[in-house]
Amino acid sequence: MLRRFALASITVAIGFAAPLLLAELVLQFLPVGTGLHVQTVDAEQPVAKFEPNRDFVYSRGWNLRGVNRGHVNNDGFVNDQDYSVTDTRPLFAIVGDSFVEAAMVPFANTMQGRLGAELGEASRVYSFGGSGAPLSQYIVWAAYAAQKYHPAGIAIVVVGNDFDESLLKYKNVPAHHYFAEGPDGKLELRRVDYHPSWARALLSRSALARYVIHDLQSTVLLLRVEGWLSDGYEVRFVANTSNSVEPVRVADSLRVIPAFLDELLRRTAMPPDRLMLVVDGVRPELYAGETVGTDSYFGIMRAELMAAARRLGIEVIDMQTVFAAAYRKDGRRFEFPDDAHWDSHGHEVAASAIRGSALFHKLFDH
């Protein structure tokens, strides 16, 4: 009896394991996403970076579409060039989230790749970005760039989910900094530490695990299903963020704007006229010629941020206007068909807008 049970158990185990082993073998030969391997973030290493000096593969979906191959440089950022603290050529830094990380776009087609190529050997363009980062984290990267590489100017790309996700109240993913209520009632930056686990390192070696986590986006899917079940309906997203204008969320988000600008100026120690905000447009509404009104969460936030920045003397590029003009000209969209991130054309238009800015002319016209 015991022998029969053991044989049955072994048979069942083989029945489960064989398809998994076959899938692992097949996927090892396919362009499965590799991920970017976030490094330790703590008191000794407070700046979020990726594992340096390694190539990566980006793909998405069950059919591994949109394959792109990129590189993480010597300082742990997605960029084909190594960064140098001894290079004295004028430097322009670009800071942001996955729109700047741009793992889905060939480096030469990104805004930083295009601008760097156009400037040539006389100047440099470095990028500092990572997926999921909000305004609060941009401060940390901008300050890091300013203190270590001394750029002549910094551009920060702002997108729809950067405001409420800057608050620890709404998001606390490890490795990033967020705003939280301080003892004096003011918002202050707090770091959420991160230490890579051995389990994550082990899973990263499995093509099947990477396929489920990175390409199928299983975690994101589960969170969305959970949200639909708990709310009873699907939340409408505009500009890559929930369009909810619930008063508490809006009030909390508006508090982030002055805190972000104050900390940005203080920590970078750069004059306002050496800083620039590149604020994404409200897509897909702009394709229908719709105006950005107060009925849109991102519409409210972007208007308040742009006005506050301009009052301080920080240049603002309103990509709503830039994108709308480009779309009227050729009818080409700026994102992937199944992904809200800027595609190569979106990066091209953004690079052109930065190139035409007052700050860029001041720094590089000579």
Q: Short summary of the structure?
A:
With 366 residues, the protein is an alpha/beta fold. It has twelve helices and 13 strands. Strand 8 and strand 9 form a beta hairpin.
Describe the structure.
The strands form five sheets. Strands 4-3-5-10-11 form a five-stranded parallel sheet, sandwiched between helices. The protein is built from twelve helices and 13 strands. The radius of gyration is 22 Å and the shape is globular. It is an alpha/beta fold. Helix 4 runs parallel beside helix 8, helix 8 packs parallel to helix 9 and helix 10 crosses helix 11. 41% of the residues lie in helices and 17% in strands.
SSE topology:
Blueprint: H1 2-27, E1 54-60, E2 65-72, E3 91-96, H2 98-101, H3 111-119, E4 124-129, H4 135-149, E5 153-158, E6 177-181, E7 187-191, H5 198-203, H6 207-215, H7 218-231, E8 237-238, E9 241-242, H8 247-268, E10 275-279, H9 297-311, E11 315-318, H10 319-330, E12 335-336, E13 339-342, H11 344-355, H12 358-364
Parallel strand pairs: 3-4, 3-5, 5-10, 10-11
Antiparallel strand pairs: 1-2, 6-7, 8-9, 12-13
